[in-house]
UniProtKB/TrEMBL annotation:
The keyword Transferase applies. Transmembrane segments: none annotated. Residues 3-148 form the N-acetyltransferase domain. SUPFAM superfamilies: Acyl-CoA N-acyltransferases (Nat) (SSF55729). One of its GO terms (molecular function) is acyltransferase activity, transferring groups other than amino-acyl groups. This is Ribosomal-protein-alanine N-acetyltransferase. It comes from Halanaerobium kushneri. InterPro entries: Acyl_CoA_acyltransferase (IPR016181), GNAT_dom (IPR000182). The keyword Repeat does not apply.
Length: 148
């Protein structure tokens, strides 16, 4: 499946805020976007100051992809629309979101990382399929890296 990534806006955020999941994650945390909106809604910043984009497919909201800069390294956060979960789109979504971020930010470092809860087995499987490898564990979190 092909995804098109576009800047996040308040309308997309309102829809994402209502997403509900049956699995490990129950809800997506988007409140900081609403709290950190400038008066012209030009620059929305999410949790931790991330820059968010939505993924569209066939004009439907398919996912959320967030890019955090930790020094020079990009850390990603992502969520697939619950209507798309379990249908085999996860690997494509992750890979295309990474490719978009590399191009958009002219990223030239050697890897991209993410953190996932140790109990989120479904997400960990998807990340491994997309080329991520476990790098470090701390309490209930696993840092994974994908070398590019």
């Amino acid at each position: 499946m092909d995804f098109k990534f576009v800047a996040i806006n308040l309308e997309y955020l309102a829809e994402i805020k209502d997403w509900k999941y049956d699995g490990f994650i129950k809800k997506i945390y988007v409140d900081p976007y609403f709290e950190n909106t400038d008066e012209n809604n030009i620059e929305l910043r999410g949790p931790g100051g991330c820059i968010g984009f939505v993924a569209l497919t066939q004009n439907k909201l398919a996912g959320l992809f967030e890019y955090y800069f930790r020094g020079e390294i990009i850390e990603i956060g992502l969520a697939l629309n619950p209507a798309f979960v379990g249908k085999g789109y996860g690997k494509d979504f992750v890979e295309q979101g990474i490719a978009f971020g590399i191009e958009y930010f002219a990223y030239q470092e050697e890897y991209i990382k993410l953190n996932v809860n140790i109990n989120n087995k479904a997400a960990r499987r998807v990340y491994k399929k997309a080329g991520f490898k476990e790098y470090d564990r701390e309490d209930d979190s696993i840092e994974m890296r994908k070398y590019i």
